[in-house]
Amino acid sequence: MSDDENQFEQGNAGSSHTYTESAGSLKKGGYVMLKGHPCKITDVSTSKAGKHGHAKASIVGKDIFTNKTYEDSAPTSHNIDVPFVTKKEYTLMDIQGDGFVILMNEDGSTKEDLKLPETEDDFNLVKEIRDMFDAGKDLLISVLSAMGEEKIVGSREAQDK
């Protein structure tokens, strides 16, 4: 056996966006993958084990990007995928005419690949961001990330240090 035979290519198996958790340990307000969508759990109920089966968890959640409701059930002893969800704040530098925003990271680098949300549910958030920005206020924009997607989910006025 030569040294070359033990060389393996390191790659991304595609599973780095989720981890598994027991369906019985999921809680309201947490996150879960339902029907392939990253969702925030709005309701979890468990049924007792039947004569021939396991106790089941019925999970209802809203997609964190589209706000669409999804439901699923799984035996409480089985594992279910949970997305890694992160929330990060950026300083709003500019709003382009096409709705894209220029955001500044803490290290001074800029992020220009995010657009203001366009769903009806986000109308008030977008109006608030535009009104405060147009008034010359310094804003911090909250961005939620999961499954390789990102969405603007909130804003607040930056506090002077």
UniProtKB/TrEMBL annotation:
Record's keyword terms, sorted: Hypusine, Protein biosynthesis
Post-translational note: eIF-5A seems to be the only eukaryotic protein to have a hypusine residue which is a post-translational modification of a lysine by the addition of a butylamino group.
Example GO molecular function: RNA binding
Residues covered by region (Disordered): 1-21
TM region(s), chain numbering: none
Record Pfam families: eIF-5a, IF5A-like_N
CDD domains: S1_eIF5A
Family: Belongs to the eIF-5A family.
The protein's name in its UniProt record: Eukaryotic translation initiation factor 5A
Biological classification of the source: Eukaryota, Sar, Alveolata, Ciliophora, Intramacronucleata
